[in-house]
Each structure stands twice: as structure tokens, then as C-alpha cells.
Amino acid sequence: MDRGSVRTAVLFGAPLLMAVASLVHPHPPLREPGMLAFLRPRLSLWIDVHVVQLFLVLLLGVALWLLTEGLAGRAATLSRVATVFFLVFYGAFDSVAGIGTGLLARAVDADPALDPTAVAGLVDRYWLARFESPIGPLIALADLSWLAATAAAADALRAHGAARSAAILLVVAGIAFGIDHPSPTGTIGMLAFLAANVRLVRDGLLVGRVGQVATA
Questions:
Q1: H/E/C letters for each residue in the chain?
Q2: Where along the chain do its domains lie?
Q3: Distances (CA, A) of 27 to 14, 42, 98, 127
């Protein structure tokens, strides 16, 4: 398998796999029945999806990096820097909010000596704490990093001949996935990212660029 085939596999596979993950991602309740009651029948799925997402976030970071590989200029540099921030902050927040909530729910629910009402309140309190410092700012940085990486990549690629539709799709991917990673926004964002990459590869703007440094 040559380098071009690997690049194409990552560019297409990363958003496609994350789109699938977004579809099977359980949707937590805004209010009732509470996070613990919600997680009980789907706890394994919740934890498994968030563990898999750690690897998929890494693949998305690689795909983002490939968008501007071989390109010079401020926009390309900004996209690569934002990609690094995305990898750090998104993985961190998904671990704390996603995996952490699942593990807490599994631990407290396994102890019959604990008061059920107190246990449910504890899980809810932990889950809602994602909106507070330091997790809240962490989530904001993760989402803004993703948006900056995709938007800057769109700008850099547009300056080097990318179609307007590809650039728009990258911006849509940045906005939609930045809102939230479960469906529908996560799915929309990943399908937009996939469509943009398909167009860019078809136009010969990604695969085979290794070693070519363009100037902006």
C-alpha cells in the first residue's frame, strides 16, 4: 500500500468512521430521567463509544494535517497549529466528560450500600460540571481549535486552487462538529468533511502533494 493510498484511506476513513460513531453515540437527557438512569441500560455502549472516539479524534487530527501538508503560508500554519490544539483538548475533554461519567456511573451503581438518590445526584452533578471550569473552557478550546483548523485549511486550500464548494464544506464541517459530536450535528459535520476531502482528492489537491511546498 503506497503513501497516496494511505493518505486517501485516512482522509476518507476518519470522517466516515466518526460519522458512524456519532450515529451510535447515546443522546444524554437534558433533564429527566437523569444521567444515571439514562446510562444504566446503555452503559457499555456509552463507554465503548467514547474510548473508540479517542482513536478517531487522532485520525481526524491526521486528516486535518494532511489537508495543508506541503503548503506554506499563514493560513496553512494556523491550521496545523490549531490541529495540535484540537488533538490535545478534544481528547482531554472527551475522556473526562465521556469516559469519566461512564466509569463513575458504573462504580456507584455497583455498590448497593449507597443511597440511590445520592448516587443519582452525584452522577448528575459530575455530568453537569462539564459546563464549569476547568472542563467548560477545555471544551470551548477543543471546539474552537477544530473550527479554526478547518476554516484555516479551507482558506489555505482555496488560495491554492481548491473549489469554493470544498472550502464551504470544510467550514460547515467545522461549525457542525464544533457544536456537538453526536448526531445530528456530528454526523452532518463529518459527512461535510468527507465530501470536502472527496472533492479535494478528485481535483488532485491532496494526494501526491508530498514534497511539494507551495507558497501563498
A1: CCHHHHHHHHHHHHHHHHHHHHHHCCCCCCECECHHHHHHHHHHHHHHHHHHHHHHHHHHHHHHHHHHCCECCHHHHHHHHHHHHHHHHHHHHHHHHHHHHHHHHHHHHCCCCCCHHHHHHHHHHHHHHHHCCCHHHHHHHHHHHHHHHHHHHHHHHHHCCCCHHHHHHHHHHHHHHHHCCCCCHHHHHHHHHHHHHHHHHHCCCCCCCCCCCECC
A2: 3-202
A3: 22, 11, 12, 13
The pTM of the full predicted model, rounded to 2 decimals, is 0.91
Q: How high does pLDDT run on average in the chain?
A: 91
159-215 tens-digit pLDDT? 999 999 999 999 999 999 999 999 999 999 999 999 999 999 999 888 555 444 333
- Rounded CA-CA distance 50/209 in Å is 33
Cell digits for 125?
452533578
